[in-house]
Structure formats: structure tokens, C-alpha cells
Automatic annotation (TrEMBL):
Catalytic activity: N(6)-dimethylallyladenine + A + H2O = 3-methyl-2-butenal + adenine + AH2
Keyword Flavoprotein in record: yes
Biological process, per Gene Ontology: cytokinin metabolic process
CC cofactor: FAD
EC top class named in words: oxidoreductase
TM helices/strands, residue ranges: none
Organism: Cucurbita moschata (Winter crookneck squash)
Gene3D superfamilies assigned: 3.30.465.10, FAD-linked oxidases, C-terminal domain, Uridine Diphospho-n-acetylenolpyruvylglucosamine Reductase, domain 2
Similarity section: Belongs to the oxygen-dependent FAD-linked oxidoreductase family.
GO molecular function: cytokinin dehydrogenase activity; FAD binding
Keywords: FAD, Flavoprotein, Oxidoreductase
Name of the molecule in the record: cytokinin dehydrogenase
EC number: 1.5.99.12
Domain FAD-binding PCMH-type: 53-229
Length: 526
């Protein structure tokens, strides 16, 4: 079979005339789904939301289920260099879901799977790894009045995709990231095995895959913890002129016990100017609300801060009771009086808030433009220095999109997963969500990418304790530095579950054509 595969895998520069059926035959695949080598499909699979890379795969696989995914991985194992990348909704930034002349598996093509299960008094949703979180939300709320506890801000992401990274939003301070709210997974390993795993069954695989950057297995099903869904949300934004006050209030809120704090806590930085994309006008929530800058003190600098919080409530709750509870939670906070904005909306509308921004961006042509985003976790001990060196200096005029910054608690993350975090109980998510104009000049995009590198370099030079979230590195040295004392565990897990380095090659952590992989391949064939 390997000899028959040579026309498909040797010449990586030429365009192949082969169709999907002949490729299936070559790979000895008998799939319930399908395989396409059509340039329209492989072209789509060779792009992502980041728009910074374009890497064409050998084929796009549309699996019907886990059996198809396993067959694809096992077929790749029979070659010396073929790789497999799982693609969710294509929202990676640096080509992490691509496979250069490999096989990209379209997880969105998997058969729909949705089931509510109850175990030991807890309720879960069993969902496909290729399901979008927005669809999970709608089905859980509309049919059962339930919802997952932890979210991402943007819900057009797949379940398997976010669980392979972390999954963070304003609920994570209380419930932890999404990877802390899943009880069981079905995974196809890099050996082509289909395994059920949980804390008590195949636990090493379970914790390896969670936050594992796709290196140990492809998530084909997940059991997600649910809770009763509220009906309504009061969404509030509070403006601060001093970072230390903003950070102190945010940290106080995330440390408070449940019932004595908000249900959602995030924050962002914005420019103290009239820029429609990054300035003061981006803060008000209700239609017609105005940011009255006369409330700002004369000492206000070039950047300001917004603490974003929310409270859940029921339709039958008295408005006066909700008002009283919120005023109690707000009392003592040091935001600028007169610069408080709020709006009431349904729970589903609140969680879908970024969808509306997406629709506007699509209409304006910027959704399909490059997005050189940068996401970091920064230790509480260094966040003031980061603010001074980055927000107040390098990024004082904004990044053309949101600049998120808010605290999380390390104790809400399970150290057995593959995610690596800064030291200390409190650390901050920093997300620089850049948007570029339609069809930007390559020089502009290169400049923004270089600015991201400069920010990372600033962290190194100033000894700021940080970790990249959704990391992207180019060398083993950089990955070793990223994982620190967890590197040996990460490598050991790779040898257990994907020893041939089949999976997620564009993460650039392990190379399929490395000496070790080749020796393993020869040993296996001997």
C-alpha cells in the first residue's frame, strides 16, 4: 500500500489530478463520510480565521463519526510522513488546524449527537466534538432549561476545539475554564484507537487531551456539565481611569464567594479618545447611551479601563430585588461615578453578544481580513508592569479591536490537564483581538505580527511571568520554555498516545519527519 501512496505523498509541490475516491482507494479507506481533493475544499481547509497562513492539505476528510476518524489516523500511520489535523470551525489564528500535504478532518461534518444524561444527581449533555457551542446553548436552553456552566465569548467554536485549548470567558473565575467542566470524552488517539476516557477511566488520556493542543487525540464526543439556565441577564460596564483600582476591584470580585459576587466578570482596555473602533464610544451598552467624558478626572491618561460584570435572574424575580442586589454588589467599587452603563437582555442574547459583532464585521468586510491576535496569561505579580509597558505605551492607541484583561483563579484549573499557567493563584487573561481593514497591505499585517513579537519580547526583557494562551512557537526550545517543568510530562504523553507524531502537525511541537519518528516507523515495519 505504501508504494501505491507514493504518487499522493511524494510530490508536495504539484497539484494532483486524483479525486477523493481514488485517494480513499489508495489509503484503503472505507468511510461512511467522504474525502475530497477538490481545490475548493482543500483551499478552504488551508485557511483559517487568522488569515496569516495558507497551507494546502492533500485532502479534506468529512467523517461521519469516530470510526471514520480512526480509519483516517490508522491510514496515516501506514505512511512515513502523512499527518492528520482536526479542523473545527476554522477559528485558529496561526494555522494550527492545517496539515501541509496531510489530511485535514472536518469535524463539523460529523453526525449530530446530542443526549441529556443524569449521573449521581448531576446533569450532562453528550455532544459531538464537532458541535458548535452556540448550537449546544440553544438546544440545552430551549428544550431543557439548562446550560453549560462555562463558556467562551464567541460561541461559533466547536466543542472539541475549545476543549483542546482551554475555553475561557467571564464565568471561568467561578467554574473554571471549559476543560474543568467536562466529565467524559470519546477520543481517537494518534494510534487510531477509539477510547472513552474520564477522571476514572483512561485518566491519563483524559487529562492529556484537555488543553493538549490536539497533540494526543481528536475529541469526537464530550460530556459537558449543565446547570439550570437563567432567563435574563443584567449586563453592566464600569469605567476606571486607574489600572490599579480597576485590577483591585476585579480581583476582589473574583475572590468573593458565590452569592456575594457577579455571575460574570471580565474587563477591557480602551483608548481615551473618540476612535469609533477602540475609543470611548465602544463602552456604552444601551442604544442611545452616551459616554460623557466630562466625568473623567483631569488626571485621566491615554488609556482607560472597563470592568464588565453581569447578574443572572429569573423572569419572576422582582425588578426592585434585582436592583437592590446589584447595588449591594457595586457598593465600594472605585469606578468613575457617572460612567456606569447597563442593559437587560435574555440569557441567550447575552451569551450570543459576539455573534452580533460578527454579523457587523462580515457586513463591513473585516471578518475575512487577517486577524493577528495575541492571547496571554500574565501573573498578577507582573500585571501592573505589563499595563505600564504595553497598554499605556505600545498600545495606547488601541489595536483596532478589543483589548481584554481580567483576572482568573488558578485553583479553578486542574493541574493534571495539559494547560500551562503562570505562577500564583491570580493571573490575568490578556487578549489583543486585532482587526484589520479589508484587503490590507501585507506590510500592515507584518507590522502587527511584529508588534506581537515585540510584546512577547517586552515580557521576557522585563521578567514578566506569562504564558501564551493558544500558543504558537517555531522551535523546540521555545516550547520547552513555554511548558517549563511540564515539558517532560508533555513529551511522555506524546509517546503514549501519538508516538508517530501524526496529529496536529502545524502546532510545530513535534515533527513527523524527525529522526525519532523515522526510527519508530522503521522499527514498526521491521
Amino acid at each position: 500500500m505504501i508504494a501505491y501512496l507514493e504518487p499522493f505523498i511524494q510530490d508536495t509541490d504539484s497539484r494532483r489530478p486524483h479525486d477523493g475516491s481514488s485517494l480513499c482507494e489508495a489509503l484503503e479507506l472505507q468511510l461512511q463520510g467522504g474525502v475530497s481533493t477538490d481545490s475548493r475544499d482543500t483551499g478552504l481547509a488551508g485557511k483559517d480565521f487568522g488569515g496569516l497562513h495558507s497551507i494546502t492539505p492533500l485532502a479534506l476528510v468529512r467523517p461521519a463519526g469516530a470510526d471514520d476518524v480512526a480509519k483516517v489516523v490508522k491510514s496515516a500511520l501506514q505512511s512515513s510522513n502523512l499527518t492528520v489535523a482536526a479542523r473545527g470551525n476554522g477559528h485558529s489564528i496561526n494555522g494550527q488546524a492545517m496539515a501541509d500535504q496531510g489530511l485535514v478532518v472536518d469535524m463539523r461534518a460529523m453526525e449530530d449527537h446530542f443526549r441529556i444524561v443524569q449521573i449521581n444527581g448531576l446533569t450532562y449533555a453528550d455532544v459531538s466534538g464537532g458541535a458548535l457551542w452556540e448550537d449546544v446553548l440553544k438546544r440545552c436552553v430551549s428544550s431543557y432549561g439548562l446550560a453549560p456552566r462555562s463558556w467562551t465569548d464567541y460561541l461559533s467554536l466547536t466543542v472539541g476545539g475549545t476543549l483542546s485549548n482551554g475555553g475561557v470567558s467571564g464565568q471561568a473565575f467561578r467554574y473554571g475554564p471549559q476543560i474543568s467542566n467536562v466529565a467524559e470524552l470519546e477520543v481517537v488517539t494518534g494510534k487510531g484507537d477509539i477510547l472513552i476516557c474520564s477522571e476514572n477511566e483512561n485518566s491519563e488520556l483524559f487529562f492529556s487531551v484537555l488543553g493538549g493542543l490536539g497533540q494526543f487525540g481528536i475529541i469526537t464526543r464530550a460530556r459537558v456539565l449543565l446547570q439550570p439556565a437563567p432567563d435574563m441577564v443584567r449586563w453592566i460596564r464600569l469605567v476606571y481611569d486607574e489600572f490599579e483600582t480597576f485590577a483591585g476591584d476585579a480581583e476582589s470580585l473574583v475572590r468573593r464567594p458565590e452569592g456575594d459576587s457577579f455571575d460574570y466578570v471580565e474587563g477591557f482596555v480602551f483608548s481615551n479618545n473618540d476612535d469609533p473602533l477602540t475609543g470611548r464610544s465602544t463602552v456604552p451598552l444601551a442604544s442611545g447611551a452616551i459616554f460623557d467624558s466630562s466625568h473623567l478626572p483631569e488626571t485621566a491618561g491615554s488609556v482607560l479601563y472597563c470592568l464588565e460584570v453581569a447578574v443572572h435572574y429569573r423572569n419572576n424575580d422582582q425588578v426592585s430585588t434585582v436592583d437592590t442586589d446589584i447595588e449591594r454588589l457595586l457598593s465600594g467599587l472605585g469606578y468613575v461615578k457617572g460612567l456606569r452603563f447597563q442593559v437587560d437582555l435574555s440569557y441567550v442574547q447575552f451569551l450570543s453578544r459576539v455573534k452580533r459583532a460578527e454579523e457587523e464585521a462580515i457586513a463591513n468586510g473585516v471578518w475575512d481580513a487577517p486577524h493577528p491576535w495575541l492571547n496571554l496569561f500574565v501573573s498578577k505579580s507582573d500585571i501592573v508592569n505589563f499595563d505600564r509597558a504595553v497598554f499605556k505605551t505600545l498600545l495606547k492607541n488601541g489595536v483596532g479591536g478589543p483589548m481584554l484583561v481580567y483576572p482568573l483563579l488558578r485553583s479553578r484549573w486542574d493541574s493534571r490537564t495539559s494547560v500551562t499557567l503562570p505562577e500564583g493563584e491570580v493571573f490575568y487573561l490578556v487578549a489583543l483581538l486585532r482587526f484589520t481593514p479589508p484587503n490590507p497591505r501585507p506590510a500592515l499585517v507584518d507590522k502587527l505580527v511584529e508588534q506581537n513579537r515585540e510584546i512577547v519580547n517586552i515580557c521576557h526583557v522585563n521578567c514578566i511571568d506569562f504564558k501564551l494562551y493558544l500558543p504558537h512557537y517555531h522551535s523546540e526550545k521555545e516550547w520547552k520554555l513555554h511548558f517549563g517543568n511540564q515539558w517532560s510530562r508533555f513529551v511522555e504523553r506524546k509517546t503514549l498516545f501519538d508516538p508517530m507524531a501524526i496529529l496536529a502537525p502545524r502546532q510545530k511541537i513535534f515533527a513527523r519527519d524527525s529522526l525519532i519518528s523515522k526510527l519508530q516507523f522503521l522499527k514498526q515495519k521491521a
